[in-house]
Structure formats: C-alpha cells, structure tokens
Amino acid sequence: MLFNQAMVAKHVWRLLQSLNSLPARVLKHKYFLQTSISEAKDHHGSSHLWSSLIWGLELLQTGIRKIVGDGGGCEDQWCWHYNSNGCYTVKSGYAVALDLANERNGRSSVNQSSWWNGLWNLKIPQKVKIFLWRMYHRALPTNSQLIKRKIPVQPICHRCGEATETPKHALVFCSSLLPIWSKLRVWSQLNRCRNGSLAELLVCLFAVIEQSNFELLAMIWRWVWYDRNFILFGKKQSRKDLIFELAKDVLEEFQGAAGRSNVRVSGGPRGGFSRVGDGVAGEVLGRAGRGGSLVCATRWYPPVMGGSGGAPYGAYGPVMGGQIGVQLFLCC
C-alpha cells in the first residue's frame, strides 16, 4: 500500500513539473481551476483517477518545497526535500511513507492506551462519553455510513453542500463549523489531523490539548450532532451560533453539580410525603421538561415524569426551570 502511494506521488510530481502539459491542463480545468495542484482537494463526484492522485499528493506534501525565482527569467521551482538533488523518486517517497507509518504506529500504541484510560475519566456527562465512543468507531448514521448499509440517501452534506457527509466531515471539517472552532482556538490542531481517520484525530487531540479544552470540545461535538439532526429531521433553522455558549454552560453546570454533595430529603412525619421536583431547559430541540419524585418516611415512590412545554431556546435557566418543575409536579 505504501509503495503504491509512492508510485502515485510520482505521477503528481510529473504534473507539478509540467503544468502546461495536456494532462495537467485537463485536470486543472476540471478539478483545481482556481488554485494550484499542490493545494488541490478531493471533491464529491471526483473520478477514481483524481482521488488516487490526491492520495499521492498527501505523501508529496510532506516533503515538497518551493524555490522562489528572481521574478525575471528564473521561474519558481518545486523541489523534494528528502533527496539531495531535489527530485522526487519512488524510492525516497516510499522511505518517507514508511517512516511516517512507523512513527504513527509507535505513537499510536502509546496514545491509544492513554486515550482509553482517560476517556472514561473525563468530567463530562456519561452520554457524551458514549458519543465519543461512537465517534471513535464511526458508529454514527451520517449519509456516507447509511449508503454503506444500502440505504438510499444523498451522500452530500446538507449543511455546506460541498462534500460527502462522513462522520469526520459532519463533526469536524464541515465549513459551516469554522466559526465554532475559531472560538475554541483549536483549528490548527484539528487541521493537523485532517489526513487521518476520525479515531486517529480523537486520539491525537486527546494527547496534545488540555483536558479541559478536550472536555469542552466533546460537548461541542455532541451539540453539533444535535443541531445536525434538528435541521435534518426537525426541518428547522440551524442554531449553530449558540452551540459554543450552550456547550460551555452545560459543561460548567454539570461539573459544578458533580462537585456538590447529594441532598438529603426528609419525608416528614411517618406516613407523610415530601415533593421533589426538577425542571430542565430543552437541548437543541428547545423544549422544557419536568419531573419529580414523592418521598415518604416509610416508602419511596417512582419518579413522576411530565410532558414538554413550548419554551423557546434557553428560555428557562436552571433556577427558573427548577421552580417550574416543582409547580408542574403539583399538577401531576
């Protein structure tokens, strides 16, 4: 596989060296009309030939450098960093690919251990930990995954309309998410892991960024997925402008609640009852819920759950939500 990539990279090198050749001009007109071949990307609907060339380009990008000309008769030239004469060869490309694979595998074995040990110790809700587990195993029903299961859907991302909706694209590299990553200031780390799988991206990020930032990132991913489903199935407008603040607030509230001791509730006189109510603001779907339990001095009764109200986005804070929960409980 590595040798094949080195062979394909040789063809890309030839295109770089002869941009005026007929194959280069045909490919430029179809795939990278507004940019150079060194910055070209794979697109939805690309031919197998072009996808293969992009695969070779990924290897070539690890070692090509541009020598700037004098602006006159001497034009800019490309050189290959890993060969003394500056020319790419399959032998040198294969050596680089092999070194990168060995480095990645060696680093991966160490990082994998810390990833699995650290995942379940993150200070985030349990359902978000499970969501990270699903991300790692690509167990998310994105369009690309549904197509693999023979479900007839359009592969294109419905938010940006620019690429196939894979789990990695839907949660990380969709262009509609760039404003969120700019707030978290992790785009450089995310972009560095672009060429790997989603599992490799998770392991890499867990190793290089602070735990607090990774916990917030995990919450954001969960909200991004909520928002994606909200658009797709609720047919409503995206609220991605609120995702960062919502994820941050929910994480702070969860971590603050985890540090508090459990509340002891007295049942009052023997045979008497106490009411325990709770209210919550809905997540991306924008609903309010209610619930509660009856506490008796001699017996515990199962929780009483209520329906949902039509609260707007974030209309109820935790305090008001709790009061509403108690009041609604009295009517149950």
From TrEMBL:
Alphabetized InterPro entries for the sequence: RVT-Znf (IPR026960)
The source's superkingdom equals Eukaryota
Q: Where is the Reverse transcriptase zinc-binding domain?
A: 88-181
Instruction: Output this protein's name.
Output: Reverse transcriptase zinc-binding domain-containing protein
